[in-house]
């Protein structure tokens, strides 16, 4: 696991390419005034690996942590990040408060899968991701927004919603020409998906602009603008 420089102030650390691991990548916007981490990692163990990768790359620790949305593979590492302000959409804050109240453990995961087998892939991945439940906590954002928010270091978070998650947010670094997409255009999570569900191409088209040169989804490699446009055209 290693951070790779993408453009300007933006560094990306890819997740596991194996879909069964359900491990999202993260990004860091490095700034001497305070860095911004986009998404927390899927677990405390994953967060510690990200922290080691930050140190190896000589990158500063984050001052802010921005959630692209509330799904576990983007937020369960938050409890391992000290001294950060967690930023997220107000809808995600409500959902994460509900998640925080659940009695997470391997036993609870097994019980939930028995009650709803469709949860199996996600919950098995969670069981593998969390090596210890001691000290584990689901953390809602401590600073919320409705439409959008700009941090003091010129990083903006904008709510876009969509079928994947009601709180889906994209994070822009305009001076670096980068837009971090999270999972915003993905179909709903697998246990909620129907055969008719597919990528939200209309949402993607609205996001493509000549002012942004790189587009980064959480579960795929960064795409240059021309590549992103070609990918959308191929899906249509």
TrEMBL record:
InterPro entries documented for this protein: Metallo-B-lactamas (IPR001279), NDM-1-like (IPR050855), RibonucZ/Hydroxyglut_hydro (IPR036866)
One Pfam assignment: Lactamase_B
SMART domains in alphabetical order: Lactamase_B (SM00849)
UniProt domain Metallo-beta-lactamase: residue ranges: 23-219
Protein name: Glyoxylase, beta-lactamase superfamily II
Organism: Micromonospora peucetia
